[in-house]
Specification:
heterodimer, A: alpha+beta, Peroxisomal Thiolase, Chain A, domain 1, 10-stranded mixed sheet, 5-stranded antiparallel sheet, 23 strands, 25% helix, globular, B: 399 residues, 9-stranded mixed sheet, two-stranded antiparallel ribbon, 11 strands
């Protein structure tokens, strides 16, 4: 039976207290929401979550990447293929994007489970990420959050077996975005909840429990998608679960509703604490319901998972910064010679091994490690005699740095730095992100993080930055 | 390897007014510099047999010089080597004449930076679009500053104050240079409190963004005195290019530049200099940022590694000091129109060695060094000029 062997998560470091919405608009809920930074999107967060799962377990043998989101970075171009490359998976793995529905995350998970069960994949990485935007002053604006989650689906010896699942469609116009829409649209809330969310999830959960011949009381923990804290609480009570003991916290006060990633994010949070014998129910919502029943044989392998990402946070300075980081508000355009960064699709393809995969060259003769990789060794001039080594998976240290106010960008100063990698003591020119520039010091420990650099050439140019080592 | 020593002379030089030349096109500035040089050398455009022109990105090919100066049917070559492009024009013209192919050649350097709408040299480096998209020149040199402070145990405030002394010195010298972009005294306090460009470098630690052109007439040494009694001779030229951008090169210590050291060594060997601090009378070096000048003191052997701070405090390199550096105010006062700077540094040495530097004149100057450091930074040129006549055979008659 196929199941889950490893888990991972990524929550962007920035959080905006909902008090900030109150200051801006007069109404604001409790707690805070996560906000993807200006250099983050669903691709970069998915890479973060995927690497968390991969670093927890083994990269060996992964042959598929299934990605789910309603907010992929590209309307036409795959995200899973980028995740595979940034995670340094072998060329030619099977990659699939799921989208269009808030169920895209669980759609991807069910498809991966089926593929592994059927034998067409041995080890499938499932990732979901979301960065939905609400109209300024809407409830969505403060209830939504940005995050990603990942699970590794394997067959033999999976720590967490998926013993039953149902997937049912429910056609309704309740929450949607047109092709041209930046912001989530919705019908009247009471209609959405009763005829959409409550109707579909109740039907899905009821069907799952019936198939499994279980009562709600026999579930150790219920992981249920919710549009917000209030409606989530009402639904889980009506499903017959004890909110205090049986229901995974919906993270509405800390992260927010992360859409297609939400059910997987909550599942990762549950599995992080799971014990052998736990029976876990998962229900997602979006144009219907996916419901899964999981049996924990042993806790899945984990690295950072949800708890470490929840703990590592920086409060966003203001509502204005939220608008800026999410691309809702424009600031003064940059001066002419900075407007169009150079980019070429040809170079982006040719250099993929050392940009997206962050490989350096280690000389087979003298051991010198260089990035970008040098065909002729700097030290001994050995020609074409090197081994590629991946730099991104280990931390590094700041060798020198500066806070550059001339470089432009949405949030000056840019922290440009020279990093010495733990892997091979290689020097790299990197931008530091997720950091208070005034705290940067020579010798500080940093980790590599996959980010959006710019949109030169009209496409998204991704590369690696560094940020303070979490827990370092 | 041979030597350029005493094979060629500079018989005329010109330098445009440096500054925000909203009024002037590149051609206007080339004309301004070239006609001053013609007059200084006592030649006409018809005497020029070949030309080299240095610009980083203000024009292509040699045509702009032909167009501006109406030089007709002679070889004109554009050279580019980052900030050393002007020096590269001088160097190529010198070698062209030294080869015996030409008797008189023109070296011109220029740059038009104020047509870009950006107060700097631009953002982003490298062939790959993601590797250094937010790199700036101040960033590169700030890495050096922060590392220098760290390695030598200099607290940040103290380090900033040291750098400020260099800015104050160069601004002071600039007050005596009518062609400089700035002729204004500044105080240490002003430098320390100025807005930060890239920490620790503030506004006054950075040279301004400037337009300008400069020009030299290079002549066979044995013909030079046909044109003037005080030609200035090229005594040595060193030029070195680092392999791999220093910033990502394995083992780079960030305390100075190998290209500087190598270029200086080449030049000193040609001239026979063993103690540059004693043997040179003055130097004009590439103070694109104050920290650059500080490490150049060490790279060019004006002091030992790690000793620049104490020399700065002692005033060793002021106009009245043991070895005056950047007597004309340097890039700090002139600005850095990239292709022009190498020839502008030579212009100052040339004037000083002819005893024509006015209130900033270094007494009895006989041997001077000019220097540019270019790129990310990767390229260094050191040229040494002297006014001592070489022992020559019977000069050829002019024409």
């Amino acid at each position: 039976m196929s199941g889950i062997s490893a888990i991972g998560a990524y929550i962007p470091m920035y959080r905006l207290p909902r008090e900030a919405f109150k200051q801006a608009w007069g109404t604001g809920g409790a707690g805070e929401r996560s906000v993807a930074s200006y250099d983050e999107d669903t691709t970069t967060m998915a890479v973060g979550a995927a690497l968390d799962a991969l670093n927890a377990g083994s990269r060996e043998g992964v042959d598929a990447v299934f990605f789910g989101s309603t907010t992929p970075a590209y309307a036409e171009k795959q995200t899973a293929s980028m995740i595979a490359v940034a995670c340094d998976l072998p060329a030619g793995v099977r990659t699939v994007d799921f989208g269009g529905s808030l169920r895209a995350g669980t759609n991807a998970l069910l498809a991966a489970l089926d593929a592994v069960q059927a034998g067409s994949s041995r080890k499938a990485l499932v990732v979901a990420a979301e960065t939905r935007k609400g109209y300024p002053r809407s409830d969505f604006e403060q209830n939504l959050g940005d995050a990603a989650a990942a699970v590794m689906v394997t067959k033999s010896g999976a720590a967490v077996e998926v013993v039953e699942s149902v997937s049912m469609s429910h056609e309704i116009v309740d929450v949607w975005r047109l092709d041209k829409d930046r912001f989530v649209r919705s019908w009247e809330d009471r209609f959405n909840i009763t005829e959409g969310y409550e109707y579909a999830v109740k039907a899905g959960v009821k069907e799952l429990l019936k198939k499994a011949k279980l009562t709600p009381a026999e579930i150790s923990k219920a992981v249920v998608y919710g549009p917000d804290a209030r409606n989530h609480a009402a639904l889980v009570r009506s499903l017959g679960f004890d909110p205090a003991k049986q229901v995974q916290d919906g993270l509405f006060g800390t992260v927010g509703n992360t859409g297609a990633a939400h059910a997987l994010l909550l599942l990762v949070a549950v599995l992080e604490q799971a014990k052998a014998g736990d029976r876990i129910l998962v229900a997602s919502y979006g144009d219907g319901c996916d419901a899964l029943l999981l049996q924990v044989k042993q806790p899945p392998v984990k690295a950072r998972a949800v708890s470490m990402h929840l703990a590592a946070k920086r409060t966003l300075a203001s509502y204005d910064r939220f608008l800026l980081y999410r691309g809702i508000m424009e600031t003064n355009p940059e001066q002419p010679s900075r407007v169009e960064p150079y980019a070429a699709a040809t170079v982006t393809l040719r250099d993929q091994r050392y940009t997206l995969r962050l490989h350096a060259a280690k000389c087979n003769k003298c051991g010198t490690v260089t990035h970008p990789p040098q065909r002729v060794c700097y030290t001994c001039r050995a020609k074409d005699d090197f081994t590629e080594v991946r730099i991104a998976d280990k931390p590094g240290s700041i060798f020198s740095y500066t806070r550059d106010n001339l470089a432009g960008g949405p949030e000056p100063p840019v922290v440009n730095c020279i990093v010495e990698s733990d892997e091979g003591q290689c020097r790299l020119f990197c931008i530091m992100t997720d950091v208070d520039p005034m705290t940067v010091k020579i010798g500080a420990r940093v980790e590599f993080t996959f980010r959006r650099m710019h949109e030169g050439g009209g496409f998204i140019n991704y590369y690696w930055k560094v940020r303070p080592l979490l827990g370092g | 390897m041979g030597t350029i020593k005493d094979k060629v002379a500079i018989i005329g030089m010109g330098c445009s007014k440096f500054g925000e030349r909203w009024d002037a096109s590149p051609e206007d500035m080339i004309i301004e510099a070239a006609y001053e040089a013609y007059e200084d050398a006592g030649i006409t455009p018809d005497d020029i047999q070949a030309a080299w022109v240095g610009t980083l990105r203000s024009g292509e090919a040699g045509g702009i010089v032909a167009d501006a100066l109406k030089l007709k049917q002679i070889p004109i070559t554009r050279v580019e080597n980052w900030c050393a492009s002007g020096h590269e024009a001088l160097r190529n013209a010198a070698f062209g004449v030294a080869s015996g192919m030409y008797d008189i050649a023109l070296a011109v350097g220029y740059e038009k930076l104020k047509d870009t709408g950006f107060g700097g040299l631009g953002v982003g480096r490298g062939q790959n679009p993601v590797l250094q998209p937010k790199a700036t020149a101040p960033s590169y040199f700030s890495f050096i500053a922060n590392r220098y402070f760290h390695a030598h145990g200099i607290p940040e405030d103290e380090g900033k104050e040291l750098l400020a002394r260099i800015a104050v010195k160069n601004h002071h010298n600039g007050t005596m240079s009518p062609k400089a972009h700035f002729q204004k005294e500044i105080t240490i306090e002003q430098v320390m409190k100025a807005p930060i460009i890239a920490w620790p470098l503030g506004l006054f630690d950075c040279c301004p963004t400037t337009d300008g052109a400069a020009c030299a007439i290079i002549c066979r040494a044995d013909l030079a005195k046909n044109f003037r009694q005080d030609p200035i001779y090229i005594k040595g030229i060193g030029f070195a290019v680092d392999s791999m951008l220093p910033m990502v090169r394995p083992g780079f210590n960030y305390l100075g530049f190998d290209a500087n050291r190598a270029a200086a060594k080449q030049a000193y060997e040609q001239v026979g200099i063993s103690n540059p601090r004693k043997e040179l009378d003055l130097a004009v070096v590439h103070d694109c940022f104050t920290i650059t000048e500080m490490v150049i003191y060490e790279d060019l052997g004006f002091t030992k590694p790690g000793h620049a701070p104490e020399e700065v405090r002692a005033g060793t390199f002021t106009l009245e000091g043991e070895l005056p550096v950047n007597t004309d105010g340097g890039l700090k006062s002139f600005g850095h129109p990239v292709g022009a700077s190498g020839l502008r540094t030579a212009y100052e040495i040339y004037k000083q060695l002819q005893n024509k530097a006015g209130p900033r004149q270094v007494k009895d100057a006989e041997l001077g060094l000019c220097h540019t450091l270019g790129g990310p930074p990767q390229v260094s040129c050191v040229t040494i000029l002297g006014n001592a006549s070489p022992t020559l055979g019977v000069p050829h008659k002019r024409g």
